[in-house]
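Many introductory courses stop at the sequence. We go one step further.
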Amino acid sequence: MDRRSFLRSLLAVGACATLPRQIARASDQEFDQAWAQLQAEPVVFGVEEGGTLWMPSAHNALVRREAFELEINPRMTAQQLIFELRRCTRATDYLCAKAAEDWEQADSQSGAAAKRRARSLSKALGGEPLNGDGDWESWLLWKGKVGELDEARATLDQWLDAELDWDDYEFLPRGYGQQGAAVSFFEEHTAADLAELGVVIVEGDHPGSSYYGAEMRGDIEEANERARRLGWPIVFKYDSRY
């Protein structure tokens, strides 16, 4: 990989924050200055006890809205919300549960108006949700039809603006966060480059696992020496995120 491609791969994962993003297309003189800066202050990759690599300089989103990269705004119709949410299984699982919860609450209320609402919702969902799993798309469309879409959107906004929890992580985009940035960076390199550094890409560390990471399988000092020999402005250090 040539130096400009190497720098582009670092910029793509949020490294080199002190350099302008267009530096990879700069003049030779400007590029040489930027490269010299990187050589003096190389990008650090942390190496955890088990060998997992992470990039301390990469951004870690803390709330779901940013981590799942969902663009939800108050002007969206029910159909537009559905289109945006279909690409986020974690969000649709949440809405399935909220649809079932709405049905249970409606079914338990008394009064003629409440009973009419319950029948209308039941018809929209195709009957009683099974195992707390409601049809979230039909629920949102129904909410829009009966004038309750703002309420549903407020519920969704509250969930999106909450901090990530452990159940969210297996649903996050592959390149998410500091561990994902390290994987995305090393995926840009050839198998020969990775072998030279003693780095491997691991997708599922056991059957059924959602683990996805880059791991250091060799000696760190040897890897750093090889990176210096290749002229790459990166350095590996033992460092745990937790």
